[in-house]
Write a structure and sequence with these properties.
mainly beta, Ferric Hydroxamate Uptake Protein, Chain A, domain 1, Maltoporin, Chain A, 3 domains, five-stranded mixed β-sheet, 6 helices
Length: about 750
């Protein structure tokens, strides 16, 4: 009996732990609210799916999802527009972040012709770049990312000397940005004189780029090339306080440091950004020294009212190596044009911009956005020929009202307003003796005015039709008062360009929720800039007239293969009258002429999407973008003296270009961005006797990003190489240059690397 009892006690002892576990109540499932947030914009992600072992939940409009699970729990986050990722959710985790895909879907909203719509609903050729696109390359300029867009070519003739060509618009731009209207944070950034100092902006001052290709004067005024809309992050999307520090170094003495910080309060936000960039440059006399500071303050009086104040200072100094002949190019690609070093060919430019933007929703169907801008520029330009010194001031403003009205299934959106700019310039031209200003050659007081009024009506009709009609009335005036001169008489010159009506008509048909087709007819004009009228040699080109053109457009967009691929195709025909072209005389002075008419036909195609996605695999995701541009641009009737260039290819335009980007995200938060840009040969003279050779440019960037699901802080390490194949090509060509100085060689293979800290 005792033996039996002992045996029973022994068995009870062995079974006690199990009995205790059985008797202990099971761990209870708890409810946990988690917010799913876009890692780039801090916006909530509606429709994000959170999958875990015991169930699934979907995020609502505010990005919140309620989980009922035993914590901690492993969850898979997925969304058609974001990279799927796995996270561990515990009681301390209340926010998780997802990295966006390219947002190539039709749901991407773009401003387009002054009315925000989803891309697939835009009856216009609109291209765009998002923060992720800008971060795939060497982050010293917009050049590499802009060249990934079909129909767009951005050149850097010298470090910080940019030229933008949209559908061949750079034919009249020996330097600088002309014939393209630019806005920055809803402020007119193109000056009243028609030029745009894009080089004073750093890449850190821009989070998003929109490009409207072709004439857009019905809403944005002068410029047959197109319009560039640059913007920072929406202040209402910035949540909480934050700070980012980035440092990078590279070949040819490159150093760049930048800082940004935000302080958020309930009804206000302050943003501070600072950049310092220095480089010795690839060529002689190609140094860069840029310092940029930006302070933006945003007030939110109500949910429907935002007041933003942007202040911006830039101190830019860079060298101008000048164009080389073919013999000089083959002898030494890194040399400067003879005389450029001795005379310190360069630009020293200090700029101040202050702007105010008032954005208010007045009622359920009526809103207004009004902006005011003041600018001041101290400009010095010693060059081989002379020494320019200018003090420029400008005032400008833009206002736009939008009215919405519904009637049954039809909806109408009427936008109307106006824009005004006025610029004053105190301009001196001196002789250049060893890089110093010498005897005054002539002095001009310049006054430039440009203003226009516009209206546009968008009507959404039953049957998924959208009809758009727009019209603007444009005015421009030049006043040149030459009160001192040693190269000719003093005089006063006034040119009031005849007012121009600029219409646009577009029709779009939604074939389904995921595809649309559109057609448009638009007029455009572009008067000469003050630098084209007033030349460095002191002459005034009184015969130069405005370009005018008519553009016919047909486009198709579609989201395919489960919304994972997007196709954007455009065909156009642009007939330009009075085309302005450049030539250079024996003294190196760039002169301008009207060259009759040009016929410009082209196709533009962009396809991008997701190749693969598996968050647990070594290659977590891979994405591909391909852009093709094909142009048949010809002079129609162009005679210069005894020479007839009719039928020749348009100078400075590549007939074909291809751009591809392959993005790969690896397991462990590693990534790679590989790009390839190919350009056909480019005619450099109007007589088509000299061409720049076809070339390829390959770039690569590798990096690692920390990923912390429960917070915004992080670390990124990156390194990259430009011109990976070490190709010899001319990045920015001088058109019709005297003496054959057509070539501006691009750097050889070069490297960079750095780190980014986010707190």
């Amino acid at each position: 009996m005792k033996l039996i009892k002992v045996k029973h006690l022994y068995l009870a002892f062995l079974l006690l732990p199990g009995a205790i576990l059985v008797a202990q109540p099971a761990q209870q499932a708890v409810e946990q609210n988690v917010f799913v947030i876009d890692a780039e914009t801090n916006r909530p992600i509606e429709g994000a799916v959170v999958s875990f072992q015991s169930g699934q939940a979907i995020a609502g409009e505010n990005g919140m999802v309620t989980l009922s699970a035993e914590l901690p729990v492993e969850a898979l986050l997925s969304h058609v527009s974001y990279i799927s990722t796995k996270v561990i959710i515990s009681k301390s985790v209340q926010t998780v972040y997802m990295q966006p895909l390219e947002k190539m879907l039709q749901a991407v909203e773009v401003t387009g012709f002054d009315f925000e719509r989803e891309l697939i609903d835009q009856a216009a050729p609109v291209a765009y770049l998002q923060p992720a696109d800008l971060a795939k390359f060497n982050e010293t300029s917009l050049v590499p990312s802009m060249n990934m867009l079909p129909g767009v070519r951005m050149e850097e003739r010298a470090p910080s000397s940019y030229r933008i060509s949209i559908r061949g618009s750079s034919i009249r731009s020996p330097f600088g940005v002309r014939n393209v209207k630019v806005y920055w944070n809803d402020l007119p950034f193109t000056e009243a004189n028609g030029t745009t100092p894009l080089n004073i902006l750093d890449l850190s001052n821009t989070d998003r780029v929109e490009v409207l290709k072709g004439p857009s004067g019905s809403v944005y005024g002068a410029g047959t090339g197109g319009t560039l809309l640059l913007s920072s992050a929406n202040p209402r999307d910035i949540k909480g306080n934050g700070m980012v520090w980035q440092s990078m170094a590279g070949s040819y003495g490159l150093w760049k440091h930048q800082f940004s910080g935000t302080v958020r309060r309930d009804k206000s936000l302050i943003e501070v950004k600072g950049v310092s960039l220095k480089s010795d440059g690839y060529r002689e006399q190609s140094f860069t020294d840029r310092k940029v500071a930006q302070v933006s303050a945003h007030l939110f009086p109500s949910a429907n009212h935002t007041v933003s104040v942007h202040s911006f200072f830039s101190d830019l100094n860079y060298g101008i190596p000048g164009g080389l002949t073919l013999d000089q190019l083959n002898e030494d690609r890194r040399q400067a044009r003879p005389g450029s070093v001795d005379r310190n060919a360069s630009i020293d430019q200090k700029s101040v911009y202050v702007g105010v933007v008032n954005d208010i929703v007045i009622s359920d169907n009526f809103e207004n956005k009004t902006s005011l801008l003041y600018s001041y520029v101290d400009f010095q330009n010693p060059f081989n020929l002379d020494y320019k010194r200018e003090f420029n001031s400008g005032l400008g403003g833009r206002t736009k009202f939008v009215w919405h009205k519904s009637a049954g299934e039809a909806q109408a959106h009427l936008s109307f307003g106006g824009e005004w700019q006025q610029g004053w310039s105190n301009a001196y031209n001196f002789g250049n003796v060893m890089g110093k200003a010498d005897t005054l050659r002539f002095h001009d007081d310049l006054l430039i005015k440009q203003y226009f009024a516009f209206a546009q009506l968008d009507v959404d009709l039953p049957g998924e039709w959208v009809v758009t009609g727009g019209l603007s009335r444009n005015y421009q005036v030049f006043d040149i008062d030459r009160d001192q001169s040693k190269v000719g008489p003093v005089f006063t010159y006034n040119n009031s360009f005849a007012p121009i009506w600029v219409p646009r008509l577009a029709v779009l048909k939604k074939l389904s929720d995921r595809q649309s087709i559109y057609a448009s007819l638009s007029n455009g004009f572009s008067p000469p800039t003050i630098d084209e009228v007033r030349t460095n040699e002191g002459s005034i080109n009184k015969n130069l007239t405005a370009e005018k053109g008519t553009n016919y457009e047909l486009g198709y967009r579609a989201s395919i293969i489960g919304d994972r691929w997007f196709v954007d195709a455009t065909a156009f025909y642009f007939k330009l009258k009075g085309t302005i072209v450049t030539r250079t005389n024996q003294d190196g002075v760039v002169l301008f002429d009207n060259a009759g008419n040009t016929n410009q036909k082209g196709i533009e195609l962009k396809v991008n999407g997701v190749l693969s996605e598996n968050p647990t695999a070594f290659v977590a995701s891979s994405k591909l973008q391909v852009a093709y541009t094909g142009y048949h641009f010809r002079f129609e009737d162009y005679q210069k003296g005894d020479d007839d260039f009719s039928g020749n290819k348009l100078t400075g335009v590549a007939p074909n270009t291809i751009a591809t980007v392959l993005d790969i995200a690896f397991k462990g938060n590693f990534y790679s961005n590989l790009s390839w840009f190919w350009s056909d040969k480019i005619p450099l003279r109007d007589d088509n006797t000299v061409y720049a050779d076809a070339y390829s440019n390959v770039t690569c960037r590798l990096g690692w990003k920390s990923q912390v699901a429960s917070g915004k802080w992080g670390l990124e390490l990156f390194a990259g190489v430009d011109n990976l194949l070490d190709q010899k090509f001319s990045w920015g060509n001088d058109l019709n240059a005297f003496g054959g100085r057509n070539y501006q060689p691009a750097p050889a293979r070069n490297y960079y690397g750095g780190l980014k800290i986010r707190l």
